[in-house]
Design brief:
- The protein is mostly helical.
- The chain is built from two helices and no strands.
- It has helices at about 20-95, 100-105.
Length: about 140
């Protein structure tokens, strides 16, 4: 195919000699190599950032788990303290001593301020003085 006069200098065969083609090819290869290196570095940076975020998330999850366990322990402790206080208040209000079978203590009505009178024990058939029923004064 020949060059027409309408195309101009672009189709001039003297502009497309071998050294020009080699130079254009070398520039293209350098551009591709630089693009590849930049993309690779960018990918490494994104990978490092993602790994750091993952590690931070794992640490936060471990912290949350530890906090949850600590709160559960504190709740159990506070619940036990509240139950013990309520039990003591109920025992004082009822005028009875704690049952040694339950608490492991050998408190007697005299030691609890009962004046030596036996407290009512389920199944024992005795009632505390006062005549109103078990544990009433």
């Amino acid at each position: 195919m020949g060059c027409s006069k309408n195309v101009g200098a672009v189709c001039d065969p003297s502009l497309m000699d071998t050294p020009s083609l080699l130079l254009a090819l070398a520039a293209l290869l350098v551009g591709v190599a630089l693009g590849f290196l930049l993309a690779r570095q960018s990918a490494a940076t994104r990978t490092a950032r993602a790994e750091a975020e993952r590690d931070a998330a794992v640490k936060r999850a471990a912290d949350v788990t530890a906090d949850r366990e600590q709160l559960a322990h504190q709740f159990r402790s506070l619940s036990a303290d509240a139950l013990e206080k309520q039990t003591k208040q109920a025992d004082r209000a009822a005028g009875t001593a704690p049952d040694p079978d339950i608490r492991g203590t050998a408190a007697t009505p005299a030691a609890a301020g009962g004046g030596g009178k036996p407290a009512h024990r389920p199944g024992s058939g005795t009632q505390a003085a006062g005549g109103g029923g078990p544990g009433l004064r």
